[in-house]
Write a structure and sequence with these properties.
Blueprint lengths: L1 H23 L9 H13 L5 H34 L1
Helix pairs in contact: 1-3, 2-3
Keywords: Membrane, Transmembrane, Transmembrane helix
C-alpha cells in the first residue's frame, strides 16, 4: 500500500512539474522577427516539416519536458538526502 502511495505521489509530482514547466518555461510571447522566421522555416524545410510552427511546438515541448525531468530528479535526490541525514 505504501509503495502505491509513493508511486502515485511521484506521478503526481511529475505531472505537476510538467504543468509548471508549460506555464512558466516558454519563449517570449512576441511575434517572430523576420530573421527568426527564416531560421525556423529553413530548419523545418531541412527536416522535411511543412509548417515551421509544428517544429517550434515540438522543440519547446521537448525543452519543457527536459526542464520537468531535471526538476523531478533534483527534488527526488534532495528528498533522499534529507531522509538519510534525518
Amino acid at each position: 500500500m505504501a509503495t502505491r502511495v509513493r508511486r502515485l505521489f511521484k506521478i503526481a509530482l511529475f505531472i505537476g512539474l510538467i504543468v509548471l514547466s508549460v506555464r512558466y518555461v516558454h519563449p517570449y510571447p512576441y511575434e517572430w522577427t523576420e530573421t527568426q522566421m527564416r531560421a525556423w522555416l529553413y530548419t523545418s524545410q531541412a527536416l522535411g516539416i511543412r509548417d515551421p510552427e509544428d517544429l517550434y511546438f515540438v522543440v519547446w515541448l521537448t525543452i519543457e519536458l527536459i526542464v520537468a525531468v531535471l526538476a523531478y530528479v533534483a527534488i527526488i535526490k534532495l528528498w533522499r538526502y534529507y531522509r538519510t541525514t534525518s
